């Protein structure tokens, strides 16, 4: 079923409801612009915020959340907050400590989703055990991974007690990740797109521009709608109010099967971010 509005949710395999749509804050530094972006997103109906320890902005995200929910008259429980454990903290004790640090910085009592940011060989299994402990203790609502390829997931699940609920990966019309997506679907793991707009590099694509014109929408809106119709959670980043509104205005049109296919066909297995099988950080 395709999301019907900005607050619509997908149900993760443990029953937790996660919004299909959220705001990302990668590369947004601590400061008023960050706080304003988070607050503004909440004001316009966003209910999901994606950050990570390595972004160095959890304090401001927390402030934006506190101010945003107050102004919107909603409660913490109405929001879905994600953060991620960084590579240098992967390990059983160190991951638990990293979770505490993230919570303290955010000023929150729990996260809705905590992810292993990258599949560092030899380290992600201990980190996963830590996430399982946090989950079993009821300290986090859902746990998952990011940047995991099929072989990483297979390896993790060999020893895991709990299957990841989410895999957040680079995903856009130049990187459609069909096999990974099928694998995740088979195992009940929700796929989530990072850099859904390919960091702004797809906006002048002629095919997307032609499709956008047909629906009287922007290229960004067409891409984000394509995510939703593909059953992929999406978290575009912007700090600008007009784009916060624009990106979320994707619930009043539907791409035809033919246009979905034209967008799928733009795939070139092209990444703007690091390759999960070949990174050294
Ligand atoms: N798990 C991971 O390893 C990982 C890696 C990367 C990102 N992420 C997450 O995914 C989120 C999104 O990815 P991303 O930030 O890399 O890239 P993105 O969302 O694909 O693109 C963001 C860029 O597009 C611009 N933009 C946004 N909306 C636009 C619109 N409607 N029209 C024109 N330009 C627009 C933004 O500029 P302005 O801000 O100036 O509007 C920004 O430069 C991140 O913020 C982060 O939360 C996760």
UniProtKB/TrEMBL annotation:
One of its GO terms (molecular function) is oxidoreductase activity. Keywords: Oxidoreductase. CDD domains: AKR_AKR5G1-3. The active site is at 55 (proton donor). Residues 33-267 form the NADP-dependent oxidoreductase domain. It holds the Pfam family Aldo_ket_red. The keyword Oxidoreductase applies. The record marks 84 as: Lowers pKa of active site Tyr. Substrate binds at residue 117. The keyword DNA-binding does not apply. It comes from the Bacteria. Belongs to the aldo/keto reductase family. This is Diketogulonate reductase-like aldo/keto reductase.
């Amino acid at each position: 079923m395709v999301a019907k509005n900005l607050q619509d949710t997908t149900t993760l395999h443990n029953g937790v409801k996660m919004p299909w749509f959220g705001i990302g804050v990668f590369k947004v530094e601590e400061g008023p612009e960050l706080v304003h972006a988070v607050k503004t997103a909440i004001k316009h109906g966003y209910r999901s915020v994606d950050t990570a320890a390595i972004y160095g902005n959890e304090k401001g995200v927390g402030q934006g959340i506190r101010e945003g929910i107050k102004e919107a008259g909603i409660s913490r429980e109405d929001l879905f907050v994600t953060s991620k454990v960084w590579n240098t903290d992967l390990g059983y004790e160190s991951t638990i400590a990293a979770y505490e640090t993230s919570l303290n910085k955010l000023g929150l009592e729990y996260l809705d989703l905590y992810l292993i940011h990258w599949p560092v060989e030899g380290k992600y299994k201990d980190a996963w055990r830590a996430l399982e402990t946090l989950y079993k203790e009821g300290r986090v609502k859902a746990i998952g991974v990011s940047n995991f390829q099929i072989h990483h997931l297979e390896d993790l699940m060999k020893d895991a007690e709990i299957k990841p609920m989410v895999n957040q990966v680079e995903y856009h019309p130049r990187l459609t990740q069909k096999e990974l997506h099928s694998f995740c679907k088979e195992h009940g793991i929700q796929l989530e797109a990072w850099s859904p707009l390919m960091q702004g590099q797809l906006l002048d694509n002629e095919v997307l521009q032609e499709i956008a014109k047909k629906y009287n929408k922007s290229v960004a809106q067409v891409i984000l709608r394509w995510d939703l119709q593909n059953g992929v959670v999406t978290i575009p980043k912007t700090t600008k109010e007009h784009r916060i509104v624009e990106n979320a205005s994707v619930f009043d049109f539907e791409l035809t099967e033919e246009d979905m296919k034209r967008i799928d066909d733009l795939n070139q297995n092209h990444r703007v971010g690091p390759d999960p099988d070949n990174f050294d950080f």
